[in-house]
């Protein structure tokens, strides 16, 4: 059936293909389509809605701001909203851990922060090459796409994507293969044919890559290697930051401090566009206006982002994530995987993936996700051949909702396996 969407909206549209309904309202972990049908959200706007839809605490701050004619657009001028956000970010995020980061507001979306990160790293070190990892996703603008490993997506650039060399992420190799040792070897070998990079960019958990978790030990070794070779470490926290893994930054579990950190998605609290880059103050060598842009620092996002940080600590959300993770892991292990030995799972905090790649039949994960949607559960796929079902609920989900969603996943797997095998 043709609709205004299919008639007018470009073929590039994507998520609406997985969830082909017209949505009208949403509250915390629930979305409603125009017919009033309820859906439980296990997708969280790809990580932009950690605090849920229309979280009342955050929304109230937005409503108050709008009612008092707070400023809505100001380029990067000083505003009260920005001052409050910076104060709160310093108080809740930077000071408790003693981070010496400068904050740079980038264009509105995640990829803008990645672009700024590699631009600054190249400027600081005076080198062109960046190392990224196989399985990485860092965004779709040219610089970020050059750091993204998916071959099909890269083709979309239409030009060569240069100055990035992909290194092996610890996934898919024989367990004895030492990926850090391999990179180290390249760096020490003056005949490796690979130039020393300005920076290495890493996701501690490759979310789009199929929820692949780097171990703390691996991350520590990566950090040490960067130090030894005078290479900057960029941590892309866009999807797994903001409390997703049970700490504010996902790299905290490894006890490492990256030189640059990209943040977006849930940093704005309510799903509004905002993106920022953190970097150690010694690297603040930008000239004024050298990385300009009209929409850097969305004022409404400052207001909601401030409220979100207050909410996170007031509600002790980070500890709650750990409790919910325990429930989730228990359910996956005992209620799902016990019946399907070919399936694997992995994750951290409230990002988990169920991996169908060992099931020989094609499209099983796709079929499971579709059945989930028919049951009123919004859930996406990720990874090689989209073979990983990605469980990414808002952090505010209740245990009852978590159980409800996971039961729908189980029923959908049961149905697909019963139909197909
Ligand atoms: C780790 C990571 N980096 C960068 C991006 C790009 O963010 P955006 O889509 O907002 O440009 C994403 C988006 O999913 C992401 O997951």
UniProtKB/TrEMBL annotation:
<dbReference type="InterPro" id="IPR015422">
    <property type="entry name" value="PyrdxlP-dep_Trfase_small"/>
</dbReference>
<dbReference type="InterPro" id="IPR004637">
    <property type="entry name" value="Dat"/>
</dbReference>
<comment type="similarity">
    <text>Belongs to the class-III pyridoxal-phosphate-dependent aminotransferase family.</text>
</comment>
<dbReference type="GO" id="GO:0019491">
    <property type="term" value="P:ectoine biosynthetic process"/>
</dbReference>
<dbReference type="InterPro" id="IPR005814">
    <property type="entry name" value="Aminotrans_3"/>
</dbReference>
<dbReference type="GO" id="GO:0045303">
    <property type="term" value="F:diaminobutyrate-2-oxoglutarate transaminase activity"/>
</dbReference>
<protein>
    <recommendedName>
        <fullName>Diaminobutyrate--2-oxoglutarate transaminase</fullName>
        <ecNumber>2.6.1.76</ecNumber>
    </recommendedName>
</protein>
<keyword id="KW-0808">Transferase</keyword>
<dbReference type="GO" id="GO:0047307">
    <property type="term" value="F:diaminobutyrate-pyruvate transaminase activity"/>
</dbReference>
<dbReference type="InterPro" id="IPR015424">
    <property type="entry name" value="PyrdxlP-dep_Trfase"/>
</dbReference>
<dbReference type="Pfam" id="PF00202">
    <property type="entry name" value="Aminotran_3"/>
</dbReference>
<keyword id="KW-0663">Pyridoxal phosphate</keyword>
<dbReference type="InterPro" id="IPR015421">
    <property type="entry name" value="PyrdxlP-dep_Trfase_major"/>
</dbReference>
<dbReference type="InterPro" id="IPR049704">
    <property type="entry name" value="Aminotrans_3_PPA_site"/>
</dbReference>
<comment type="pathway">
    <text>Amine and polyamine biosynthesis; ectoine biosynthesis; L-ectoine from L-aspartate 4-semialdehyde: step 1/3.</text>
</comment>
<dbReference type="GO" id="GO:0030170">
    <property type="term" value="F:pyridoxal phosphate binding"/>
</dbReference>
<keyword id="KW-0032">Aminotransferase</keyword>
<dbReference type="InterPro" id="IPR012773">
    <property type="entry name" value="Ectoine_EctB"/>
</dbReference>
């Amino acid at each position: 059936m043709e609709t205004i969407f299919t008639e007018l909206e470009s073929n590039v549209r994507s998520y609406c293909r997985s969830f082909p309904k017209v949505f009208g309202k949403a509250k915390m972990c629930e979305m409603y389509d125009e017919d009033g049908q309820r859906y439980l959200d296990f997708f969280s706007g790809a990580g932009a809605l950690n605090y849920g839809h229309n979280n009342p605490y955050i929304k109230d701050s937005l409503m108050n701001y709008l009612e008092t004619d707070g400023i809505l657009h100001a380029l990067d001028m000083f505003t009260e909203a920005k001052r409050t956000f910076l104060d709160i970010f310093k108080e809740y995020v930077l000071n408790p851990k003693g981070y010496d980061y400068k904050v740079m507001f980038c264009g509105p979306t995640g990829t803008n922060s990645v672009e700024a990160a590699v631009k600054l790293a190249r400027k600081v070190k005076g080198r062109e090459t960046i190392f990224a990892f196989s399985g990485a996703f860092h965004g779709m603008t040219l610089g970020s796409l050059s750091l993204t490993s998916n071959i099909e997506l890269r083709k979309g650039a239409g030009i060569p994507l240069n100055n990035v060399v992909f290194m092996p992420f610890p996934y898919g190799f024989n367990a004895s293969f030492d990926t850090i040792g391999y990179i180290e070897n390249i760096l020490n070998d003056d005949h490796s044919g690979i130039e020393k990079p300005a920076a290495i960019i890493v996701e501690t958990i490759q979310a789009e890559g199929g929820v692949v978790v780097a171990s703390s030990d691996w991350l520590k070794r990566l950090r040490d290697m960067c130090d030894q070779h005078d290479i900057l470490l960029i941590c892309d926290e866009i999807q797994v930051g903001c409390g997703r893994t049970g700490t504010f930054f996902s790299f905290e579990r490894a006890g490492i401090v990256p030189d640059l950190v990209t943040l977006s998605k849930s940093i704005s609290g309510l799903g509004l566009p905002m993106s920022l880059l953190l970097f150690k103050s010694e690297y603040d060598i930008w000239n004024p206006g050298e990385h300009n842009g009209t929409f850097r620092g969305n004022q409404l996002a400052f207001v909601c982002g401030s409220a979100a940080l207050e909410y996170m600590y007031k509600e002790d959300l980070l500890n709650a994530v750990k409790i919910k993770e325990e429930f989730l892991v228990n359910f996956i292990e005992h209620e799902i995987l016990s019946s399907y030995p070919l399936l694997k799972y992995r994750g951290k905090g409230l990002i988990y993936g169920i991996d169908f790649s060992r099931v020989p039949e094609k499209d099983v994960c796709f079929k499971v996700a579709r059945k989930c949607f028919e049951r009123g559960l919004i859930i996406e796929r990720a990874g090689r051949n989209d073979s990983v079902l990605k469980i990414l609920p808002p952090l505010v989900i209740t245990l009852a909702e978590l159980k409800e969603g996971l039961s729908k996943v189980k029923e959908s797997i049961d149905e697909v396996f019963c139909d197909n095998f």
